[in-house]
Amino acid sequence: MIAGVDIGGTKIAAGIVDDGGKVLSRAECPTDAPRGYAHALGNIGRMLNATAHEIGAEITGIGIGSTGPVLPLTGEFGEVNFFPNWKGENLVRDLSQSFQVDVALENDADAAALGEASWGAGKNKKRLIYVTIGTGIGTGFIIDGHLYRGVDYSHPEIGHHLVDPSGPACVCGFRGCWESFAAGPAMTAWMNEHAPSDYPHGRDLSAKRICELAVAGEDLARRAVDRETYYLGLGIANLVTMFCPDTIVLGGSLMKSAPLFLSGIKETIRRSCSLVPFDKTELTLASLGENANLIGAARVWYHRFQDDGSSR
Predict the structure, then answer these.
(1) Do 82 and 148 belong together in one domain?
(2) What is the tens place of the pLDDT at every residue in 232-265?
(3) Does some domain include residue 311?
(4) Are 36 and 134 members of one domain?
C-alpha cells in the first residue's frame, strides 16, 4: 500500500491511499514548526505506522506533498516561509531509511494536480492546470500526463505573476502579484481598508466569513466578492491565454464558495481571451474533497516510480 504525507503550514496529514485514490486511513497533527524538523519527522513516522496498522497494511511506498519551495529530486526543503529552520532537511532520505521503501516529494500544488489529473476532475485530460486558492495561490501543470517542471526542476510560482505593479505589497517582496490581489488574505485586507469604524461585523474577517456575509446580501461583503471575482478571473484568463489548457481545476478553501465567483470568472475569460479558443478550456472544481492534498501526495509516488516505469 502507498502512503501519503501532506505537509502544510499549520497541519500535517498522513494516511494510506489505495490505487484508485481512496483514502483508507488517515491521521493528522499540528505542524508545530517552531519545535523543529526532528519533532515533525517523529510525528510523521508515528502517523504512518498508526494508519498502516489500522487497516492491517504494509507500506510499500511513500509520496509527499509539501508547501514549498521544495527540491523534488533531492528530497530537501528549500526556503519555506512557514518553517524556515527546515531548509536543507531531507524528508525523502529520512523516511526511506525508516521504512525501507521508495519515497518521492513534490510541492503540494503539484501533488494535488497529479491527484486531480489521475483520480479526479481532470481525469483523461492531456493539458491540465490546477489552481488552489486559499491563504495563497498555488498552481500545478500536467502536460501530456507529466508534471511540468521548470529549469533546475523548479516549480512555477504562478501566484506571483504580475497583475499590477502599483498593487499591494506581496509576501515575495514584490508588489502587485496575483496572490496579493486574489488570495484569501487580500479579501480581509480590502475589507479592513474599506469598512467604517463602526462596521457591525467586526475587523479582520476571514474570506469564509466575508463570503457568508455576501450570500446574506451585506453590501460591503458583496463588493469584496466582486473585486475578488475580477482578480481571480484576470489571473485565470492569463492562464487560458498563455497555455490554452484542456481544463483548469479550481481548488482550495476559497472555492468552497465557488458559486459566488464562477460566473464572473467565466465572463472575464470570455472578454479577455479572444485570441485563443477559450471556450474549449473547461473550468471545473476539484473533486477529491478535503483529502485532495493527501490523495495527491500518494499520487506523487505513482508518478515518480510507476507511471512510466522509471524514476524521474
Answers:
(1) no
(2) 999 999 999 999 999 999 998 899 999 999 999 9
(3) no
(4) no
Contact 117, 128 (CB under 8 A): yes
Report the relative pairing of strands 23-30 and 247-251 from DSSP bridges.
Answer: unpaired
Residues 143-162 pLDDT 10s: 988 899 888 888 889 999 99
The answer on pLDDT for 308 being more than 60 is no
Catalogue the long-range contacts made by 40-43 (C-beta closer than 8 Å, 24 or more residues apart): 40/7, 40/12, 40/83, 40/86, 41/91, 41/94, 41/95, 43/12
Containing domain of residue 151, as a range?
121-287
Decide: 58 and 49 in contact? Cβ < 8 Å.
no
Q: Is residue 35 part of a domain?
A: yes
- How many domains, in total, are found in the chain? 2
Whether residue 155 sits in one domain with residue 84: no
How many Cβ atoms sit within 10 Å of the Cβ of residue 58?
9
In the predicted model, is pLDDT for residue 305 greater than 70?
A: yes
pTM comes to 0.88
Look up residue 88 and give its DSSP letter: T
What are the angstrom distances between the C-alpha of 138 and each of 130, 151, 269, 309, 312?
Answer: 8, 18, 19, 28, 22
143 and 58 share one domain: no
Instruction: Identify the pLDDT of residue 178.
Output: 97
Same domain, 103 and 125: no
